[in-house]
Specification:
With 699 residues, this protein is mainly beta. It has one domain: Maltoporin, Chain A (Beta Barrel). The chain contains 7 helices and 42 strands. The strands form 8 sheets. It has a 23-stranded antiparallel sheet that branches. The chain has a 5-stranded mixed sheet with strand order 1-6-7-4-5. Strands 14-13-41-40 form a 4-stranded antiparallel sheet.
Length: 699
């Protein structure tokens, strides 16, 4: 209740800004050009250069990425308003969860991650493999805040992050070869090459990374290769994208803190490990064929894609070894058409599309890698998702735009578990009876943009979104007394959202203020830490907050400031804890900080020398597993300052990056016990220094 006046004040402030802008509006009704940059965006699933859309859209350009001290995509996103990262290791993005607008531990399942418009958020909980998307391969990143389920389907509850990789289109022939070396025995090599010949283009990106890691037993080895070939014709464009990646990482586990036992590994042995035998590997590959056809009646785009993922992991805890192998294959077909037409005095841009995803998930478990040929459990889940959607952008009398969208989606999942009690280590196991579930959900969007004049615009958007449970959230232990495995099919999660904002874009400057509210029903909850509780749908909850973005240029310095206030609360109901149901009405959702501030300053010292400072403050937050908010210890607030300096000498680009310049000892993830005063925290690196060199061949 204490935050209601704050939000009311924000809405009042927006109203005052709107009134002031209207009073000063230019009497000319022509639309303001809110951007002088020719930035291509895909907010409607078609490329366009018009940023004046009824969506809350941020575009991070290649120039901004190259100027940033960030070394991974999650680090770039951490500098944006409303985005909070939970990291376990701070080692090239391994086990990093991206949370937009306050979903905490399930942020990765409520913020949909795309690469070139295709899903890389899977039907398991392995998370996005960020190292397979090296920054050297990224052309730009688009963040769409607010429900994106109409255009992209389930999981786009808080928003969508679309990572666009580099393409030969608009490039010239040439290559860049780069290397990096620094703290924690970190080594990195990269190559990006483009070849252009008339209407044909080829882009290749190769990447290799190795690091000893901040913690004991935290070595990491990553590699990836990506290729895109394109042919641009008079009316038809063809593209082929291929890629493969591999990751091998050691897993150091958490640092135990238990005051009652006088134990504090976070202070006494911050960089140590309690899991010296744990590790994971991950291999992936993909192929996507795309067609774009320009016809008299509109533009047709279609992609046929295949992606595979092979994972293995080994965990050893208190004498109980657990080895797992997971294979996941997915075929996708995503055709759509954009039809421009006039209806009376209104200009329409209608998008009609179909999405089909066919998943095949296989899990084998054993007590040791040498015994995996005779697994204890063989789990298989096949899932078919198919949907149609319509999205129309309507322009009225220059100043008004309205977007209307609808999506209908079906999901069919069938799962089996073949249990072998005679397999090595299988005597004390169990198998789940097979099951299936058929679901149907819908989403809608209604957006409004009104251009007030003087380059001001008012935006409002409301919509409905949904999320289906992943396979890992379905397959779990049942409750007492038997604690048998079962498939716990859960209800779909649904949400109603509202965004109201005002923005001004002019030249390279931006001012945007937004208030939002998301009401969630049947939120899907994975309980990893309370044996026998099982997974469940949580009581109703609400996220609401305020986001402010400012960008300007002062002399030779480009400045950016953001502030986000996020309140995530359970509205009512109980939470099934080990000791029995606990009332969580009015409690704060764990892993959601209320305040986040970022400051970014990019200084052009000379035409060939540049420096960037990036600062991030995140307030304290409740630990994972502390839904009742009664554990008594929180994840402390932290501040991180990063610095990058680069200097160009002819075809060379040389530089220095210092991350965590102030040597902050911090962590962004911790999980509390439900029965004692113990918790496990995952400390992140203190100050690190890296140097880099890049050489450009060709133009």
């Amino acid at each position: 209740m204490a935050t209601k006046p704050c939000l009311t004040g924000v809405i009042g402030a927006l109203a005052c800004l709107t009134a002031a802008a209207a009073d000063n509006a230019d009497t000319d009704t022509a639309r303001a050009n809110l951007s002088t940059e020719d930035v291509v965006v895909t907010a409607t699933r078609f490329p366009e250069t018009d940023l004046n859309r009824p969506v809350n859209l941020t575009v991070i350009t290649r120039e901004e990425i190259e100027a940033s001290p960030a070394k991974t995509v999650p680090e770039v996103l951490a500098g944006e308003v409303g985005v909070v990262n939970s990291e376990l290791f701070g080692n090239n993005g391994v086990s990093t969860n991206i949370d937009l607008r306050g979903f905490g531990a399930t942020g990765g399942q409520n913020t949909l991650i795309l690469v070139n418009g295709r899903r890389v958020s899977d039907i398991d909980l392995s998370g996005v493999k960020w190292s397979s998307i090296p920054l050297s391969s990224v052309d730009r990143i688009e963040i769409i805040r607010g429900s994106g389920s109409v255009l992209y389907g389930d999981g786009a509850v808080a928003g969508v992050v679309n990572i666009i990789t580099r393409s030969p289109i608009g490039e010239s022939s040439g290559a860049t070869l780069g290397a990096r070396y620094g703290s924690l025995d970190t080594r990195e090599g990269k190559l990006n090459a483009t070849l252009i010949d008339d209407n044909y283009g080829l882009n290749v990106n190769a990447y290799k990374f190795a690091s000893g890691g901040y913690r004991d037993n935290n070595e990491n080895d990553d590699s990836s290769v990506q290729l895109e070939a394109r042919r641009d014709g008079v009316s038809n464009d063809l593209s082929l994208q291929l890629g493969s990646d591999r990751q091998s990482v050691r897993l150091p586990g958490g640092r135990l803190v238990q005051p009652s036992a006088d134990k504090n590994e976070l202070e006494d042995d911050r960089r140590g490990t309690s899991t010296p035998l744990d590790y994971a590997t991950r291999d992936g590959a993909f192929a996507t064929f795309g067609l774009s056809s320009r016809q008299d009646y509109g533009l047709i785009d279609a992609e046929l894609g295949y992606r595979e993922k092979e994972q293995s992991s080994y965990f050893y805890s208190n004498g109980f070894p657990d080895y797992r192998e997971v294979d996941l294959d997915v075929w996708s077909f995503t055709p759509r058409i954009k039809i421009p037409f006039l209806l009376g005095r209104t200009d329409h841009q209608l998008v009609v599309g179909v999405d089909v995803y066919d998943w095949d998930y296989r899990l084998h478990t054993s007590n040791d890698p040498v015994n995996i040929a005779t697994p204890i459990n063989q789990v298989r889940a096949t899932q078919l998702d198919y949907a149609y959607y319509l999205y129309d952008t309507i322009r009225f009398a220059d100043a008004w735009q309205v977007s209307l969208g609808w999506r209908e989606q079906w999901q069919e999942i069938e799962a089996t578990d073949d249990y072998d009690a005679t397999a090595p280590g299988g005597a004390f196991g169990s198998g789940a009876p097979g099951g299936q579930q058929d679901l149907r959900e819908h989403a809608y969007d209604l957006g409004l943009r009104y251009e007030l004049g003087m380059q001001w615009a008012m935006l409002a958007k409301t919509g409905r979104s949904f999320r289906f449970a992943t396979v890992d959230e379905i397959y779990d232990f049942a409750g007492p007394p038997l604690f048998q495995r079962e498939f716990q099919f859960l209800r779909p999660q649904t949400a109603e959202s509202l965004d109201i904002g005002i923005e001004r874009r002019w030249n390279a400057k931006l001012l945007r203020a937004t208030v939002f509210q998301i009401d969630v029903e049947d939120e899907i909850h994975l309980d990893n830490y309370s044996t026998g509780i099982g997974n469940t749908n949580l009581p109703a909850s609400r996220r609401r907050g305020f986001e402010l973005e400012l960008a300007s240029t002062v002399g030779d310095v480009d400045l950016g400031v953001t502030y986000a206030y996020t309140e995530a609360k359970f509205l009512e109901g109980t939470f099934d804890a080990v000791g029995g149901p606990v009332d969580i009405g009015g409690k704060t959702v764990p892993l959601v900080p209320r305040d986040k501030v970022t400051l970014n300053a990019h200084w052009t010292i000379t035409p060939r020398a540049f420096a960037t400072l990036a600062y991030r403050y995140v307030s304290d937050q409740f630990m994972d597993n502390d839904e009742p908010n009664d554990f008594g210890t929180k994840i402390p607030a932290y501040s991180v300052l990063d610095l990058k300096y680069s200097h160009q000498i002819e075809s060379w680009n040389l530089g220095l990056v210092i991350n965590n310049l102030l040597d902050e000892k911090y962590y962004t993830y911790a999980v509390s016990s439900t029965t004692t005063d113990a918790y496990n925290a995952y400390p992140l690196p203190e100050r690190t220094v890296t140097v880099f060199a890049e050489y450009r061949f060709g133009n």
